[in-house]
Amino acid sequence: MNTDGPMYIIYRPTNTTTRVLIASNDNDSKRNNVNTNLNYRYAVTGGTELNIDVDYGIFRLRSNQFQPNDYFDASGNTKLFSNVYRMISPTNINIFSAKTDYERNFYKGRLGFGARVGFVKTDNDFKRYDVFGNNEVYDKDKSNRFNYTENINAVYVNYNRAFKGFMFQVGVRVENTVSDGNSTGLKYNTNTSAYENYDSSIHRNYTDVFPSLALTFNKNPMSQFGITYSRRIDRPAYQDLNPFEFKLNDYSFMKGNTNLRPQYTNSFGLTHTYKYKLNTQLNYSHVKDIFTQLPDTTEGSKSFLTKKNLATQDIVSLNISYPFQYKWYGFFVNVNSYYSIYKADFGGGDRKVNLDVFAMSFYMQNTFNLGKGFKAELSGFYTSPSIWQGTFKSIAMYSIDGGLQKTLFKGKGTVRAAVSDMFRLMKWKGAPTLPASTVKPAGAGKAASLN
Fold first, then answer.
1. Which of 168, 373, 380, 444 sits between 20 and 30 A of 132, alpha carbons compared?
2. Separation between Cα atoms, residue 144 and residue 259, nearest integer Å
3. CA-based max dimension of the chain
C-alpha cells in the first residue's frame, strides 16, 4: 500500500507558504488467518433442538512501513532536508469461543436459551527506527508494546408464540465482560538521565442486560404491522484500543485510545409490509458513548486523529424498500432518510459538539434477462451530504456498478464479469465541524495544513 500527498507549511501572520512537505508511505503488509469450527447438532422434527459450537481463530498481521518526509522550499522544487522513518509492527490475535443453544416447544410457543464464552488475546508490537542512509537507529521513545485480553460470558433466554391475529417474541441477554490491557515501553527520566520501564494498564469488569421485544400483527396477511425494541452493545475494535502512533507524516498521525468505551444503542421501530413487497420502517435510536474520530493537537503544531466517545446520538429514520419483477426486467429500490443529533462536551468552554443533520440515501439494483443464458445488472447508490462520526461534515457520494453473466453447461456453470464504480464517481471528503479552538492553533506562529 502506497500513499503520498503534499502538506503546505504556512507562516500565519502573512499566510505565505514557507515549505512544502512531501511524505510518502510504502507499507508492505501481510495478513494470515486460520479459523476452525467444531459443531454438534441434535434435532427432533418439530421438537427439541440442540446446537453446540466451538471456534478457534488465529490472525497474524505483519506490517513494514517505510516513510521518508522530504522538505522542499516554497516552490516545491528545491529539496531542503529529509526525516526518514521505518515502522515495523507485528500483531498476533487469538480468538476462542464456545456456545450452546437449546430450543424446545413450551406452553404453545417456542422457548430457547443458551450460553456463550469467548476469549481474545492480542499482542501488538511497534518498533520505530530513524533512518540515516543505510543505517537504522531504534527509537526507544516512540516504540511500544500493547497486550490486550478480553473475556465475554453471556447467557440468554428467548420465547415466541403465535396467537390469532398476532405473534410476539421476547428475550433477554446478560453479558459480563472482563478486559485487561497494558502498554509497555521505555520513557526517558530527565532526573536520572536514563530510560525507565513504564506500564500503562487498563482493567474493566462490567455486566450488561440486553432485552428485546417484537410484536407482529398479521390478521390481514396483505398488510402486516410490527413493533420492535432492542438494546445492543458495540465494542471498540481491538486496533482502536491500541495506543501506538501510526504516522502519516512529521506533523500528522493516528493513534488508538485505551480509554475507549463500548457504545450502547436503544432502538424502537414500527414496521409495515404491504402485499409481501412494500416494506416501510420508522425507527428511533438513542446511542450512548458513540464512537467518533476526533482531530486534536499535541506539541503545538502536530495534529492527530483518535477515536473517542461522544456523549449521545439521537437518530430518527424512515426506510422504504420495494422489489419489482416483470418478465425480463426486475429491480429493487431502497430509500432511507434520517434526522440525527450529536451532542458532547469535551470541556474547555467551547469544546462542545451540538450538531443536527437531515440526510438521505438511495440505492437501486436493476436486472435484465437478455435470453440465451445472458443476464445483466446495473446498480447505483447516492448518499447526500451528512455528518460522519459526529465531527466531520462529508460531501455527497454516489457510484454506479455494472455486471454481465452467462450461464453455461445447462445451468451448471457461470461466467461473470463486473465493474465497481465504473465511472470513478465515489470520492469521500470531509471537514471538521468542531469550533476552531477545539483543534488548538499551532505554536510559534506556524500552521500545518493537510491537503
1. 444
2. 17
3. 83
What is the spatial distance between Cα 199 and Cα 203, in angstroms, rounded to a whole number? Answer: 13
Cell of residue 246, nine digits: 501510526
The amino acid that residue 28 corresponds to is D
Q: Are 177 and 204 in contact (CB under 8 A)?
A: yes
Residue 256 burial by CB count (10 A; 0-12/13-18/19+): exposed, middle or buried? buried
C-alpha cell at 359: 440526510
CB 318 within 8 A of CB 338: yes
Q: Tell me the one-letter amino acid at 401.
A: D
Query: 12 in helix, strand or coil?
Result: coil
Q: Is 409 helix (H, G, I), strand (E, B) or coil?
A: helix
Amino acid residing at 277: K
* Backbone phi, psi, residue 251, to 5°: -110, -10
Give CA separation, 221 vs 227, 311, 347, in Å: 16, 42, 54
- In whole angstroms, how far apart are CA 8 and each of 46, 413, 440, 446, 448? 69, 55, 18, 11, 6
pTM: 0.80
Q: What radius of gyration do the chain's Cα atoms show?
A: 27
With 0-12 / 13-18 / 19 or more C-beta atoms within 10 angstroms meaning exposed / middle / buried, residue 47 is exposed
Q: What is the pLDDT of residues 194-239, one digit of tens each?
A: 877 766 778 999 999 999 999 999 999 899 999 999 999 999 887 7
